Structures are given as C-alpha cells and as structure tokens.
Amino acid sequence: MKFNKKKINVVDIQKAKKSVFATGIGNAMEWFDFALYSYLAVIISKNFFSPVQNDELKLIFTFATFAIAFLLRPVGGIIFGKVGDKFGRKIVLTITILMMALSTLIIGVLPTYDQIGVWAPILLLLARILQGFSVGGEYAGAMVYIAESSPDNKRIRLGSGLEIGTLSGYIVASVLVTVLFWTLSDVQMNSWGWRIPFFLSIPIGLFGLYLRSHLDESPIFENDISENQEQQPGLLEVIKTYKKDIFLCIVFVAFFNITNYLLLGYMPSYLDENLGISDNISTPVTAIVLIIMVPFALTFGKLGDKLGNKKVITIGLVLGIVFSIISFQFLNMGSLIFLFIGLLMLGIVLSVYEGTMPGSLPTLFHTDIRYRTLSWTFNLSVSIFGGTTPLVASWLTHVTRNNLAPGFYLLAVSLIGLIVVLTLFKDTSGKSLKGSYPTVASKAEFQEAVENPKDSLWWKMEQTEKE
C-alpha cells in the first residue's frame, strides 16, 4: 500500500480547542433562539394566533409554524453544503451566524395579530423559514469543521464541546426567561416582556462573527479538497454509492433529535398545558437539569474516544428504552422532586448523544462529499423527525388523551435506533476520517500513523468493497 506521510494532517491541539469554542457560539445562538421559542410558545400562540379559541389548538398552530420552518433546513443544507465543499467550511460558518442573528431579532420586533391581522403569523413563519435555512448550513458545517480540525484520538471529546454550545444557549435562555417571569406581571409578559430576549441575538451574533472570522480553514479541506475539485460526484451518484452511510446518518439524527426536541422543545408546553406546571417552576428546574448535563456530555465524549462511539451510543439507546416511559410517569406524579428526576432521566439520555454525535456523524462520509452529504442528510432527518417532534407529541397526547404518549414515542424510536446501531454501524473512534490521511497532534502519533499504513488508511478497504 502506497503511503505518503506528507499527507498526514498535523494540528495544534490548542487551536483545535479554540475552534470548538468559536463554532460552539453559533450552536449556542441557534439553541438560544430555539429555547426562547419553546419557552415562550404559549405567549407566542396568544399573540400570533389570537382568533383561535381553543388554547390547545393555538399551541399546535404555533408548533406547526415551528415544524414548517424546518422544511427549509434541507434546502439550506444543500446550498451551504455545496458552498462549503467548494469554497471552504469557514465562509459558510461566517454567513450562517449572521443570518441566524437577524432572523431571531425579526421575531422580537414583529407586530401581533391584533395589530396587523393575518400578516402577523405569516411574517412569523417567514422569520422561522429564514432561521431554518441558515441553520441548514450551520450545525453540519460546525460538526465537519471540528472533526476535520481535531486529532483522530480526541475527535469525539472535542466534538462534544459543540453541544456545550447547545446547552449554554438553552441555559442562558432559561435563566433569562425565568427572570422575566419572576419580575414581570402576566400582562407585561404577554404584551412586551416576551420580546426582550430576542434582542440579545445581535450581540451574541456579532461576538460569534468576530471569533469565526479569525478561524483558520480546516486542514483537511486545505490538504484534500481545495485544489482537487475537478470530479465531484453528483447527488444521485452519492446516494447510490453511500446509501448505507446515508441511512445510518438519518437514523442517528432521528433518535438524537427526537430525544433532543422532546426535552428541549416540547417539554415546557407539555408541563404547562397538560400537567398545569407553570413556567415559573418548570423553567428553573429545566435550567438546573441542563447545567448537570454539561459534565455528563463531556464525560460521554471522553468515553467515546476511550471505549468507542458504538458502545457509548448503544448505552444511550438502552437508557432511552429504560427511561422513556418511567420518566413521563415521574413527570405526572405532581411533585417537584419527581419533576426533576423525570427531566434528569431524559437529560442523561440526551447527554450520551450530545457527547458522541458531533464527533461521530462526520465520520460516516468521505472527505470530498462530507459537508454537503452530511448537511442535507442531517437536515432532512431533523426536518422529518426533530422539527415535528413537538407537533407529533402534542397530537399524540391530544388524540390518545394519555399523558404518557410522548414516552411511548421515544421508546419506539430508541428501539429502532438500537437495532440499526447494533447491526449496521462500525466503530469509527480514533480512526482517520474517510478519504483522508490521519490527523495527529504529536510526533508519537505521527510516527504511529507512518508505521501502520493499513490502519491509518482503514477506509480504503471499505471503499474497495463498495467498488
């Protein structure tokens, strides 16, 4: 086997850690906006769907607006993914954070239905569509950038840092909304108080823009793609050649995001509308759970590098099966301590995925098609499964009149995920990214890669089998 040691990617671990922080800011921005929409869904429904008499239907319309916007994510993924593979990962990450900040601000300044009639929900939908389009290139780009900038043996743990951005954005939103609920009256909150958090998107966005503008391009893009773009396979060819990897990605993203949106998107409204637990109580309890999730996610990321991502993801799915029904039973017991335990159970399951997925999903695809394929595949799955989770959960609860219905939904998804992971997924922790030479951060790692060419280019055997 020919092995050119000059193609080994050597990275600075400190720079890799800085890139995690810079990309994590964008993720924090995305989830700050998402958390605001989730926590304030009841108030938003009253302001933008006031003619609807049934409060439950108002909430469903609000979540429907939320879900429809997700349909633009695959479009954004296709466009930004193609740009990212052609011109670099950095330029896309710079554009998307500006678009996310703008769309979040727009929601905060929109007139209500009582002020401009039917144009209010239409403009709300357009703002969510802009958000969905920009996020289509954001998260996949961040995952790819971190994976390509990290040493192979630390890729999972550094990738988990991206999800710390998710939790941080959500925690900041939780704390801010809690303070507003505690300091403002219901009338003030419904009238103008709910707008205040959306204005913070501008300073967060500008800070993220500053950090990203000072990033270097990923070493793998510079070494493997930037000067070798003559023959890029088309979409149909990619689907035909990598159908197994695409299927795996869709399933991974499905169980990850259904768990994610069930806890972080649907839960505030579920507790309020179905259990009568006010935001004044549920929001701070959720914030505490999110804070606890941070060390859990980092720990599972380290375990992913040490034990292998397949084993750790399997642990998460088993926990999802065990905790799915029990957690919702605890939530329905009417006690503060049981509320905390139920949310924490779901939080631990989500922590497993947050610790492993950002560093695992980019390993499914080859370097020359990684960004665009991961981008549209990820966003297609998020749109179908993640974005619809609050809507599906609301509908299941409404139709069955069973408050445990969302738990059964999570149970079914976790079972399917476990079967797929055990039968189709091969561990990728510590291995070079498909289509590229190893990425190392020390002389010892460099020498090991040179001395073990077959292990370093393990993906060539898989590529040969496909051909």
TrEMBL record:
<keyword id="KW-0812">Transmembrane</keyword>
<keyword id="KW-0813">Transport</keyword>
<dbReference type="InterPro" id="IPR005828">
    <property type="entry name" value="MFS_sugar_transport-like"/>
</dbReference>
<keyword id="KW-1133">Transmembrane helix</keyword>
<dbReference type="GO" id="GO:0005886">
    <property type="term" value="C:plasma membrane"/>
</dbReference>
<dbReference type="InterPro" id="IPR036259">
    <property type="entry name" value="MFS_trans_sf"/>
</dbReference>
<dbReference type="Pfam" id="PF07690">
    <property type="entry name" value="MFS_1"/>
</dbReference>
<keyword id="KW-1003">Cell membrane</keyword>
<protein>
    <recommendedName>
        <fullName>Putative proline/betaine transporter</fullName>
    </recommendedName>
</protein>
<keyword id="KW-0769">Symport</keyword>
<feature type="domain" description="Major facilitator superfamily (MFS) profile">
    <location>
        <begin position="19"/>
        <end position="429"/>
    </location>
</feature>
<dbReference type="InterPro" id="IPR051084">
    <property type="entry name" value="H+-coupled_symporters"/>
</dbReference>
<keyword id="KW-0472">Membrane</keyword>
<dbReference type="Pfam" id="PF00083">
    <property type="entry name" value="Sugar_tr"/>
</dbReference>
<dbReference type="InterPro" id="IPR005829">
    <property type="entry name" value="Sugar_transporter_CS"/>
</dbReference>
<dbReference type="GO" id="GO:0015293">
    <property type="term" value="F:symporter activity"/>
</dbReference>
<comment type="similarity">
    <text>Belongs to the major facilitator superfamily. Metabolite:H+ Symporter (MHS) family (TC 2.A.1.6) family.</text>
</comment>
<dbReference type="InterPro" id="IPR020846">
    <property type="entry name" value="MFS_dom"/>
</dbReference>
<dbReference type="InterPro" id="IPR011701">
    <property type="entry name" value="MFS"/>
</dbReference>
<comment type="function">
    <text>May be a proton symporter involved in the uptake of osmolytes such as proline and glycine betaine.</text>
</comment>
